[in-house]
Each structure stands twice: as structure tokens, then as C-alpha cells.
Amino acid sequence: MMQNYIETHLPQYPCVPESLLETIMECVRNRDLGGTSSTASDGNAAAAAGSGLGHYEYFILFIVLAISAMTLTWRADHQARAASESFFSSASKHLHALQGQDPIQSLRISLLMNHYASMCPERADNWTAIANAVRIVLDLGLHKGCPQALGPEEARRRCQLFWVTYGMDRGLCACLRLPLSFPEESITTQLDFPTDDILTSVFATGDVEKRTSANHIYLYRALECEVHRVLHLEEDLQKFGHQDIDSWLVDINARLQVWYAKAQSYTQYNMLEFKHVQYSWLRARIHRPTPRLRTRTPEDRRIVLESTLLLVEDYRGQEHRRRLFYPWHGVHILFEAAIISLEACWSSRDWEPLRSQATTMLDISLPQCVQLLANIGERWRVAGTCADRLRPLVQNVASVFSHGTTDAFDLQNEVSITEEIHGLLFSDGVLTRSQPPPTDALWGFEDISTFPDDLFFEEKDFFEWNPEWDIIPADSV
């Protein structure tokens, strides 16, 4: 299970050094369980000689196993989820008992919690975790590069941590259509494309291309962020080297195509598994109605319908294969995909060239999308609420396509549907930094006095593996 994380997930989301995980596992194998004080740094993973692992190391161990277990649902769904939940419970207990961690450790904790929250939003809040990570990054100035006094390895790790934070933060801001946590212009830290020699010193196994998968994810987040800035935040096009929106649209589509073509090369490593979703999703977002371009062309609507159809098919495949690993993103993507495809259908109801495509969307794909949300809602209530919100609207629009306008369906009802779709399309209001985020919403880890008492653990309650969770042989865990 740890190997699954190291080989597949760590290169894409390098939140912790591989050497730290290897040292922790070595201590666990040796049953070096003495002491629970947090005394280790990332450079020297285990606590000083004789003192064993601390709360920080145990948190890292259990949260990584919790993440890894959730990606093994395709082997045994119930067992994987039960194991992940128990791992997370153990990680939480160590986290709440942790004191005296340094800012880099706190940053790693936040990033790992964000990763887990994207997989299990019913148990953890990714917004809280990433808000804390951004606060630490800005406090340390990681977006500005590293002091020359730091050694090259420490500088590389800090640069790496910044870009992991950047990718997670930008993905969340774009998905929720929020103002950026910090402006792009403030970033001077360069995205590092290391040489083969450096890569070999960082990762013990795998191909060079596999080890650079994280950079390709960051490049996608940069594209996603640019679309958000231009079409939703309505920033000046000259910042992006364009004088008009049409030339920018051609350019961003071309760059997305280049990214997607390169992403295919990671398939052999089981990485960028959701590249098809990412490509179709951003393509749909480029062509949907936005604050900058509220009215789109029939060709834009055709692309939206084509892209959202592929999105629904991909997520249905993930569900069928039991590989829908990131329901937080899935729910937000599917909900918005349903809304923009409804708008494309509704705006095309009198446009014969798109009528067949729109009818397929309304009769087949959108009901499947709503059902996907309802299925996810069995674990995460928010998804069920999204399904309930969409279901009657989908039925109303489909009814118009099936029966046309009749005496029973007057102009007032048509206006009502138009207004409802428009309200869902532009539900954000003005996206500005008019107010800073409330400081009490940030997760600082410093004060644990507000946590419920039952979250703390007794040393005798150390984690025990349940034989029913044997997703893979015990000696591989």
C-alpha cells in the first residue's frame, strides 16, 4: 500500500520526501515504536536515536496510507473505504496531539489533508486545509523563491512545496470560481524542470518522464487559472499577450491541445489518469457563457455539448470501474457540466443543426449525470443536494424538447426556465477581493484546545489492521 503511494501518487503530488516515507516504514518494520514526542525534521525523518517516531511521523504514515487505500477501491470497495477511514482516524489522533511542528511540517500536513479531503469530502474540508497551506507559503515567501543561504536540496524542496500548493489552490479557486488566493504576478519562483542527474538523486525508481508528472499537472493548473482570470475575473487581455478575445481563444485552445497530447505519455505509468476529464472540462469552460462572454455562438454550444457528453461518459466509466477517486472534484465538475449543457440545449431549442445532439444530452446524458450525483450523495450529502436541484430542471427542459410549446406551456414558463438557468450560470456575483478571508476560518494547528476531547488517543489504542481489509497481501502493506 505504501509502495502504491510512492510509485504512483508521490511523483504527482510530492508533498513529502520519499526518504521520509522510507525511514518511517523502516522504523515501523523494526517495531521501533518508542516515544510519541515530535522531534524529527524532514531532513532526518525519524526522531533522534532511541526516541522512536513522533506524532508528526505517525500522522504522515497514516494519512498516506489513508490516501493510498482510497485508490484501491477497484480491488475491494468496502474493504478499501473501511481501511482508509480507520487510517484517517489514526492520523487525526496524532495530528491533534501534535505540538511544536515547524512551518514546513505544517505545510506538508496541510497539503496531505487537502489531498485526502478531495477524496473523502465527507470527512475533511479541503478549503480549510489549502487556506492554511497558502497562509504558510505566503508567510515563508515560498512564492518569491528561496534565500541563497539555503542549500540546493532544501531550496529544491521548498520550490516543490510551493508548486504543489499552487496546483491545489488554483484548482480549487478555478473550480469554485473564486478570486485567486494570491496574484499570479507575485510569483517569482520558477517551475523547475530538473536534469536527469537531479531526478535520479530524488527518486529511486521509475522513468524520468514519470518523475516529472507533477510539472505537467501544474501546467494544466496554469491553463485553468488563465481561463478563470480571463473569462470570469475579466482581467486585461494584454497581460496574456493579446489585444482581443478571439485571438486569445484560438491561443488557449491550441495550448490545451498541446497539453493534452503530452499528457497521453503518462498513461503507461498510471499517472494523469483523469487527463480526459481535465481536457474536456477546460474545453467546455472555455466555450460556456461567462461574465466576459455571456452570449456564445452555436459552435460554442456544440463544443459544450460534445465536451460535457464526454465528461459524463468518463465519470460513468470511473464509477463502473470503482475508480472515482476524487468525488469533490467530480461533484463540482458534473454539477457545472449539467448547468452549461442545459444552457446549450435550451439556447439551441430552435436551432435545428444542434437539436439531435441536444436531445441526446437531455434524454440520456443529463439523467445519467444526475444519477451519478445521487450515487455519490450516498456518501457525501452535498452531491445528493446537487442532484435534487438539477432533476426537475432537466425534466422541464426535456419536456419542452419532447412536446414543444403548447397551451399548457406558456411564455411565462419559458421565461421562468430561462431565468433559472441564467441564475445557475451566474450565481457567483462579482468576483473581487473586496473582503479578506476571515482569519478564524484558517486552520493553524497551533491551538488544539478547541478540539473535542474524544479525538485524543491513548497510547494503548495503537492502530491494528483488520483482516477484513486485506485488499492486498499483508506483507505488501
TrEMBL record:
Keywords: DNA-binding, Metal-binding, Nucleus, Transcription, Transcription regulation, Zinc
Domain Xylanolytic transcriptional activator regulatory stretches: 126-198
Record localization: Nucleus
Membrane-spanning residues: none
Pfam families in the record: Fungal_trans (PF04082)
CDD domains, alphabetized: fungal_TF_MHR
Protein name (record): Xylanolytic transcriptional activator regulatory domain-containing protein
Protein source organism: Exophiala sideris
